[in-house]
Amino acid sequence: MILLDLQNLDVRYGQIQALKGVNLHVERGEIVALLGANGAGKTTLMRTISGLLRPHAGEVLFSGQSIVHVSADRIVRLGISQVPEGRRVFPTLTVMENLLLGGYTRPRAEARTSVEEVLVLFPRLRERSKQFAGTLSGGEQQMLAIGRAMISKPKLLLLDEPSLGLAPLIVRDIFRALREIRTQGLTILLVEQNARMALKFADRGYVMETGKIALEGSAIELLQSPEVQATYLGKKNQQDSEVAPAA
Asked: Which of 6, 212, 218, 230 is the least buried, fewest Cβ under 10 Å from its Cβ?
């Protein structure tokens, strides 16, 4: 069953067309990777799904319903949460306060139950629950950003570059947690700079070039694609070896 369906999506920044007739879908329970070079339009696509940008043309359907004119806060209530590139935690609030803010759409008691689930998933956050978020390491902030998004109990999690700038061991811990999240039935759309790692984690993938979908297929098909290998994979690095393929 299709959970997210983008149809002929065009997005502009003034006279600049950032997305050009994008067609993409994510089925319920899937992990879909979105690959592409910097400036290809990946973050623009994520921000459009989240309601932070409005398309010039085309459609965004979530559970069969159009959300192109729905406010960003309402989209969260419908079940879409985004973990933005750069993490964007509130640095002058504590870890616990950041997590509770993620549950603003839910009754406080339910949000606190979800906080406990996040602290089990990321034990390091429990140790630092009273620290200001701005004092955390980059990896800890990424855990916090993912945890905060999970507090709203999303049906679809949008992850924008979760490994960016992080050490391989931290990336390994984060992706282990994401696999645990996946066992709960959560659907994930993942933008990731490390194409090999993303495709080992995902079921399917899309490759964007200059605002368009250039390739799509199963993760295995894209890993074996000569074009993807030449452009996005290259020599296997240490970070790849730290992250095992999805079960």
From this structure: 230
